Amino acid sequence: MRSDKEPIKIKVTDIIPKDVFYNAFTAGYLLFFPAFIILLSNKFTNITGIISENILFLSLFIIIGAIGPAVCRKSLMIIMGTLFFLWNIADLFCLIQLQTQLQANFLYLLKTTNANECSGFLKIYLFNISNLLLLIYASGAAGVIFCPARFKKVLVAVLTFLLPFLCVLLFKISPSNELCGKNFHDRIDEFLDETCNQNLSAEQLELANSNLDVHTEEEEMTIILVIGESHSKRHSEIYGYPRETNPLLKKLVKNEELFVFLDVVAPHSFTIYSLPKLLTLAAHDREESFIETPNIFDLARSANFKTFWLCNHPAISDRNTPYSVVTRRADEVFHSSPGLQQNPDEAIFPYYEKILQDPAKLKLIVIQLIGSHHDYENTYPKKAEYFLVDEKPAFFNEQQKKHAGLINSYDNSIRYNDFVLYYLIEKFRQDGTKGFLLYLPDHGENLYEQESMILHMEFMPTLQSVEIPMYLYLSPDHPAKDNIAASLSRPFASEDLPYLLFDLGNIHYRNADMTKSPLSPFFRPKKRIVSRCLVDYEKLKNTGAGNLNNQDLR
Question: How far apart are CA 48 and CA 30, in angstroms?
Answer without folding.
Answer: 19
